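Final report, results section. Input specification for complex C-07:
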Amino acid sequence: MKKYLALVKLLLVKQFCQFRAASSKADKRKRGGTIALYVLLALCFAPTVVAIAVCMYFMGKIAGADRYLGTFLLLMCQGLVLIFGVHSVISTVFVVKDADRLLFLPVRAHTVFLAKLTVAYINELITTAVAAIAVLLPFGLGASASAAYYVMLPVAALLIPMFPMLVGTLVAMPLSALVTAFGKNSLVKTILRIAIYVVIIGLYMFLMYQFGFLTGSENGNALDNPEVYVREILENLEERLHVVMPYFHPDFMLMTAMTAADFAQWIAGFAAALGENIALLGLVFLAALPFYRRMLVMSVEEGGSRRKKGNETVKMENRGVVREIMRVDLKKTVRDPQIGFQSFAGIVMMPILVVIIYFCLGISDEGDASVLKLISTSSLYQAIAPVVILAYIGFIGAATNVLGLYPISRENKSLSVLKSLPVPFNKVLLAKVLLATSVMAVCDLLTCVLIVALLGVKWYYGAAVLATMLLIGFGSMCITTLVDLKNPRLSWDNFSGLKNMKNSWLAMLVAFLSAISIATLSAPFIVLYALFGQWFWLLIMWLVDMAAGGAFAAIAYKVMTAKAAKCFEQIEI
Amino acid sequence: MIKLHNVSKTYAKSQTKAVDEITLQINAGEIFGFLGPNGAGKSTTIKMITGILTPDSGTIELNGINLAEDPIAAKSIVGFVPDNHEVYETLKGIEYLNFIGTMYGVAPDLLKERTEEYASLFDMKNALTDLIGSYSHGMKQKLSVIAALVHDPKIWVLDEPLVGLDPQSAFRLKQIMRKRADDGNTVFFSSHVIDVVEKVCDRIGIINHGKLVAVDTLENIRNNDKVSLESLFLTVTADGEGK
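Structure output:
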């Protein structure tokens, strides 16, 4: 037990505290800035969280403290943890970079495995806490749930990650094995990981769709009469939930305890939920341990690969400094099991969101007009929809693009190589920004094709979205690069630890502000178009958006290059 | 030629000076050995010479080029072999050399010729198409040495270059160091191994607590002080422990 606790402490310290600076006045000032940043971010995201909470409140009010619906909500929260948590499990538990530092210690493999699983679980608790506050708490308030519900909320928050953690571990095993089967072909490995990630999200959406949660009601929509809309969805759901939900027994028992009418039901539900979760954990632990051992051995043995015999031709090419830095950076990223997946999974996020919107609004029963078809006939649709999409891509693209968020931290200890090269730092940064923008451009292109094909946006608006987004994306990447340059984290051995750094939150704020700016700039033109119905207002809007995007890109690039040399020099390796 | 004038460095997260007003000149055609106990300031000095760290005060000149005023020109004549082998593990050896060659502006044909020459010399030819992550410690060291030589640097800086090398490779490396110095280049290297320094170097410097405590030719040390280099080293660094 002592060894297990020491390992958990070590892993947590490595993840959260390894970059802790010595306390000083400057640090206190920095801390003040960090708190201000978090407050600002909380304010930015508050509207979204409040909107979800209000929906859940009304859902609770209409449905009451129904344990079947409650179980379904638990499952929804777990789906979110699963989507955002699988790669964390893979990178924390199975993609081991510290094997050579742990194998010689007098600690059993299962102790290390359990410690790593615990750290992955603690990471997931953050997502769960947000989900519990935004979904379960307002649902309980709306349903006028008993005191037992609120007493059990913290317990629910602790138990929610169990099931997705277990599913994540089970998914991670064949996934890692399959990926290993592709030998040294890193590109195929990364594509395979992303494909499986898409499949997981697809399965989750399919599950929600099957329950009728994404299809809406038959009569009217949420905007006309929200109560009728929600009531109808719940009626559609009821029958299916009653059949399916008991199969998710640990969740069902947990919700039974939360909505218990008496003590006996509460204690029975609580004991069953706790026992079943522990049993599941035990089962997965036993199943995954041999696999973990195998991965551990493989990670140590891979260094001893056989060298090819014979003289292979040595090919040398000169491509120019910026292109060569981009090429090498791309190869390094793709081949790194920890960074590769996280860098390129962002490409599919926005296109998936468009597909989800299409499934939510664009599909209807035979003969009925879909919600999408109804709203797309409105003259304002072509004015508003592309701007909303642009704001979303701007936000998601900049906030999730790992290549742009950690261009310097990604270098880790080998940053000293870059610093010793006779290359101006501006060129190094330009290469980094261009690579991040290029990857983001793939996401932008996919999204624009999909909004034209699925959401009925006219192709020239799609092209305008793409052009504006490329400019804004370049500008955002310049800023996030500068942020990382000013405060890089080097000497890491678990890339998922970087996700907790202040820079990620700062990048999210940049992304949020660019999205808000796009909306604010476009709004007056949309109003003018709505009032006068003349098409040239939209033309002017896009020209202004593009000009603003161009100006943003130019200014951000100039600021970045002006500060590059000084910031680079100040990095101490 | 390497010229350091009153160079000092204190790390942001530390109160003590890692390097304290060092003034030193290493001439062309010379192999200079830089000795010192752990944490004495050897690597910090080397990182400042190679442009990885910026000195708080003082100036560094490389073949007459001020490193602070024209860092690109100064860095382009330096070849650096680091002590931590933090080369890109997810690249293949050949890709890394191609990258370095491009950064130093070496023509592809010349780069190919030099790569083949040094790869054969260090028995690395068959390993170049493998990922660096699969290399042993010594192989990474050899790759760093090759990467530092492909642009034919006028100044060669090596931080603990012999650690991890097999005897044949160590012998070849020492031969190359001698040849480069004889060709009029400057070789600056740090080491813990006093025997190696004694055999290879023309002149030595000893650093302790960030201060340069001794600089002289090996001949003078042997003739004047009548002591071994080891005794001299132990004497001048004797007060150091725990400070």
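Residues 324-573 of chain A form one domain. The radius of gyration of chain A is 25 Å. This concludes the modelling results for the funded period.
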